[in-house]
Here is the input.
Amino acid sequence: MSESLFIEPGLQQVTVWARGVLMNKDARDIVVGLTEAAAKEGKHVQAWENYVDLPDRIYVPVRAYAKISTDPIESRYVYENDAPDVVVLVEETMVKGLAVLDGIKPGAVLVVNSRRSPEEVRGFLGDTSGLSALVTVDANSMSKALMTLSGAEGATDATGIGAGISAPIAGAVVKATGIVKIDNLANVVKNPDAMKRGYNECKIMKLEKTQPKKIKKITAQERLEQLPFAGTVPSPQVDNRGMVTGSWRTQRPILDAEQCTGCGICWIYCPDACVTRTDDGLVTFNLEFCKGCALCSSECPTNAVTMVPELDFKD
Amino acid sequence: MGKIKRISGCVAAAQAVRLADVDVISSYPIRPYTGIMSELARMIADGELDAELVYAEGEHAQLSVVYGASAAGARAYTGSSGVGVTYAMEVYSPLSGERLPVQMAIGDRTLDPPGDFGSEHTDAECCRDQGWIQGWASTQQEVLDMALIYYRVGEDPRVMLPQYACQDGYYVTHILGTVDIPDEAQVKEFLPPYKNHHVLDPKHPQIIGAQIEPEQGPPMQYQRRMAIDNINPVLIQAYDEFGKIFGRKYDPFLEEYMTEDADIVMFGQGAHMETAKAVAKRLRNLGEKVGVVRLRAFRPFPYEEIAKRMSKYKAIGVLDNSAQFGISGGAGVLLTELRTALYDVGDKVKTVGFVAGLGGEVVTHEEFLRMYKKLEDIVKTGKVEKTRYWVPFEL
Amino acid sequence: MSEYEKITSVKNAPDKEYYMPGHRTCAGCGPALSYRLVAKAAGPNTIFIGPTGCMYVANTSYSCGPWAVPWIHAQITNGGAVASGIETAYKTMIRKGKYKGEQPNVVVMAGDGGSVDIGLQALSAMLYRGHKVLFICYDNESYANTGIQTSPTTPYGAWTTFTPAGPVIPEGKKLFPKDNPKLVAHGHPALKYVATASIGYPVDLMNKVRKGLSMEGPAYLQIHATCPKGWQFPADQTIKMAKLAVQTGMYQLYEYENGEYKLSLNIKERKPVYEYMKLQGRFSHLKPEHFEKTQAFIDGRCAEVGISVPVTTES
Here is the structure.
């Protein structure tokens, strides 16, 4: 009953996922670009980043949000969008192992920055119920991701909005959803040409109407019952299950056993202890935790480790 | 049965530390509590106490040292006064939240500016929301007794929280009073060894104090709240055991003096209430139905006890020996919290605040007399014209 | 100083990890690697103190941690004081028979802010009182956890969110950095050992950890831990950047013992600092005069510790 009391019918929610440090500025630009354009149309808007995802770390999943409404926004001071109409993935491997579709509204649209087809991308998502369309846009061929620390933590971004891959991705969002007028967005972003390319060249795959899966949330009482004394936890002896990081990876290390001399340099330099020296003088990689930083590959003196895009692997 | 000596509040505190077999002490000098540390240093040098004294570089560091020591499993002690107490503010919440039951003696003192060694409750009262046990002793004997009781309650497995053992600067810290110093055997019977639920020990490795997300905030705070809720029942039990072992009985919350048929009482904490008792006794000799209620437990504030036991009075004068500028009611924290406790009886009990003794000035017999007279006027007229009087300017 | 087992090479370095996979640090994080190496060298009879900073927040997000040994949070202000309390507690409890076991290694892992700036007072007092504690500063040259702000070890000319470059302040950071190893080395009579290390030289780093722990009193180790997020270079360049810092003299590797400086490397040539600085986005706004100023400053730092080889001038 109380759920229906608080529905905001004129409200659209956009949730953008990106990789920390390297793409969080572009994630921010997408939500700021869309809301600035919507504001020109007289809409009520709010754009923000997920405070708990910050400080962002290189490759960690981070989120940015937009609310665009015909009415004054009532759900202003929340951490996340609870029911996105649009989900955007700024980096393609985020279709693997992340709960990007949790809580979507029935009929939501997913936009993914990828050179792959929507069909291929869909294969990684698992349960796509609730989505009405899946869109891919090869934004990296139209622009480059912008990295800057300016604009972080609520300060002004001195580099402006929409010069990077945010422009073509936002263009694809507009093409697939019509959430704002493309001309208004063009006036807001610094790279309108890239924006137009994203608008024109994105690939849209329509899906059948289905109901999204229900997400069960843990209650405060359950948290209290599970809370150890003062939050103190035993020290892990194998790995830390509280922060499994394999889903950070955009590329995977592959060993060429012929070239490997067992020198151990990749092993000593892995910050995440994800390299194990084996008895046969080689190494194995812990893919449950490997973040794909590529230090192993970069430091290997015999070029025995190469980095391969993560989506080339089905597992 | 122990030894009877005439000692200062500082020495009484140090005696309690010796009897409690404290392991680690951190010191930093500031008047008027410094004597506690000097006494402990002398005891260590003379072989009366086996403990380590760490010369911290400041009060913030003092609290940080005992944080580490307590987490490692040692019984730890520290203390301060005045701006030293407020300088260490950052570390109080971690000590409470990480459930480290250290004891901090506060020989209270006014806050700067300007520099003033005199006693006020202001410094210690600034810490009242940090999740510690807190109370004032008004005699040198009580200083020693409360220190032992606070370790007993703070280290109880149902509580596991740090304690501020407060005493009025100069009046209690420096003046000599008669103290019965217990035997080690009695203390051993009363105070078990310190054993926390978590500890820094390579034999049982644990991670203490991990970063949380906002959703974990309410459970973490509620868990601590449940520990705070356990303080009063354990306090009652501890005082009961104390009475049986040492022969001195204390009401854990409120000491009532000549209150049986009193219409009017003075309410407050610490040394000045001893003066109030003397004035009340004189007024009783003149036939006035007056008494004194001395608050012994400041945190947790015993609002349920107060509602139960103090609703019968016609008027209560609250002595606030502190400067809490801008506070509701215009006096100090004791007036505000007493009024909240008596909210349900509303206008039936007239309450008024008296801010007195600021800067360490003596609260005189004459000033108490004027307070009692004011309360009598209020009972006669049934009207409270002002909620607070700053003595001596407004009364 | 008691005996300690020297590690002779990467190949012979011990396999056992005490800093396990699973922490929310950046992919390619220099400080995370330093933690892994320190923990590996220190072994199981160790208690870590973690003042607030990247190595607190990133490692314990959320309600967990990667250390196989005991660890406790400290404030950014008081790492040295908390460590003093722990060391004193064990000393006392062992003497009084309240603890049956050996005095554990007590190791502080503090960032540059927690060592040189807000944490300096507590560090100095700990060294003065002579506690048997190894205080390690992982120096990533900024307040990184709060999104990269200037600290006293941030180099002259570095862009941070508090020292952005602009027309009024073309160099960004105007102040030259503090030199904490030297600051603490001269004036603490109970201090037994001071050394600098770099994640680019892991065997040297681990041996310095063991040497510091073998001292009968306090030791200070400052580790150059390169930071791809804060300094703006790709995550897979973390080690190359660390080595280049040493090869240009921007970071000097030495030990200070018994009143003498002992260099850890035999540096045959010293590359110009420009070779190092040009690879990092935080210096991309600088002009030739700024590089010259840095070179002069570094020449002075090198001379202080006895690095006498002059800078190789470019042809």
